[in-house]
């Protein structure tokens, strides 16, 4: 399902029915960019084009997919055309446009060339685990996640409030301890990829790829001040992933022991294996994520006096605390 994931806590949500969610998403279905439109985004069927349902429910897990398309004119092309037009204006009038006038000419050039630009399309998966009170995105950066989260809050209603998952131990601090001690937390094992970075202006970086990490050299780098920004881990011999300093999971991969068991279920499926794939993937991560949270000291809850909880809590009634994202439209 997902190659990467960022986890958000559902702080509050009076969840509409699946039918109501479907109706809300249907009003914002994806449509390709128009001739002079630089970008477009909307919801598509997670199961595939031949199925029109936008909100799928598999084993109680809600699955959505946001599709986005962008059209961009290469900067070099715009620059060349702009210089040509400025040269012509200067030759005709004796004055070369600058500042606001030059920017306006540039915008007109981009607008004129957009219909000839090739569109680039991508999509972001959304998984809502209402029982655990979590929302997960197929993204590894907050920059990508912000736009998806904003759209979800605008469309899903119910006073939806989301906050990025935070843990008592910062991932970089925890990863540094595991590497120095050459021991992963219970249920996990250290794999063979790691990135260490000096937290100063020079950002000196050391990367290990397909290299054993249980060596004194790694610990020495940490003692000298470098901090882990990425560390490859495996959970229970079933899922491998790369943990980042921002608490993102990248390069998620189900291992052979899981895939061998899932092949039979997928082969028997009449829908191309969508339901089986969702059930298997969400089933594994619903166990992995609580274990990872526990390894990082529990959930860091917001409030004047921060507290921790070892497991994610179901969505709770809204309170007066400030969350990064609040409902902006019903």
Name some characteristics of this structure.
alpha+beta, 8 helices, five-stranded antiparallel sheet
* Low-confidence runs of at least 5 consecutive residues: 315-325
Average predicted local confidence, pLDDT: 89
The beta-strand count equals 14
What structural category characterises the helix and strand content? alpha+beta
> What is the ordering of alpha helices and beta strands?
EHEEEHHEEHEHEEHEEEHHEE
The percentage helix is: 25-40%
Q: The biggest beta sheet, please? A: 7 strands, antiparallel
Number of domains: 3
Q: How would you sum up the global shape?
A: globular
* Count of alpha and pi helical runs: 8
- End-to-end separation in angstroms reads 29 Å
Share of β-strand residues: 25-35%
Q: Radius of gyration, Cα only, in angstroms?
A: 24 Å
Could you characterize what this model shows?
There is one protein chain. The protein has 330 residues and is of the alpha+beta class. It has three domains: 6-70 and 118-164, no CATH class; 75-116; 171-301, no CATH class. Helices cover 34% and strands 26% of the residues. The protein is built from eight helices and 14 strands. It has helices spanning 18-26, 75-93, 99-113, 142-156, 171-181, 216-223, 256-268, 274-295; strands at residues 6-12, 39-44, 56-58, 61-71, 119-129, 134-137, 161-164, 188-197, 205-208, 227-235, 239-244, 249-254, 299-301, 307-309. Strands 1, 2, 3, 4, 5, 6 and 7 form a seven-stranded antiparallel sheet that branches. The relative contact order is 0.17. Residues 315-325 have low confidence and may be disordered.
């Amino acid at each position: 399902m997902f190659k990467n994931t960022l986890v958000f806590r559902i702080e509050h949500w009076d969840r509409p029915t699946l039918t109501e969610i479907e109706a809300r998403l249907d009003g914002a279905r994806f449509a390709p960019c128009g001739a002079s439109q630089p970008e477009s985004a909307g919801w598509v069927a997670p199961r595939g084009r031949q199925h029109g349902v936008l909100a799928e429910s598999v084993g109680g897990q809600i699955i959505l997919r946001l599709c986005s398309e962008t059209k961009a004119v290469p900067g070099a092309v715009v620059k060349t055309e702009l210089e040509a037009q400025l040269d012509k204006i200067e030759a005709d009038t004796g004055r070369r446009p600058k500042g606001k006038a030059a920017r306006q000419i540039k915008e007109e050039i981009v607008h004129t060339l957009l219909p000839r630009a090739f569109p680039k399309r991508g999509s972001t998966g959304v998984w809502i685990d209402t029982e655990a009170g979590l929302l997960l995105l197929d993204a590894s950066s907050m920059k990508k996640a912000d736009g998806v989260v904003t759209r979800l809050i605008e469309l899903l209603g119910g006073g939806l409030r989301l906050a990025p998952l935070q843990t008592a131990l910062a991932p970089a601090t925890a990863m540094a301890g595991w590497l120095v001690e050459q021991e992963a937390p219970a249920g996990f094992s250290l794999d063979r990829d790691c990135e260490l970075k000096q937290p100063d202006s020079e950002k000196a970086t050391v990367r290990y790829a397909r290299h054993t990490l249980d060596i004194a050299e790694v610990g020495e780098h940490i003692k000298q001040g470098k901090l882990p920004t990425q560390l490859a881990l495996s959970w229970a011999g079933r899922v491998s992933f790369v943990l980042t300093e921002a608490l993102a999971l990248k390069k998620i991969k189900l291992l052979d022991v899981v895939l061998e068991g899932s092949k039979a279920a997928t082969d028997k499926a009449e829908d191309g294996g969508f339901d089986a794939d969702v059930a298997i993937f969400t089933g594994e991560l619903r166990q992995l994520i609580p274990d990872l949270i526990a390894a990082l000291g529990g959930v860091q809850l917001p409030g004047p006096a921060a507290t921790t909880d070892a497991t994610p809590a179901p969505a709770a009634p809204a309170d007066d605390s400030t969350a990064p994202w609040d409902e902006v439209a019903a």
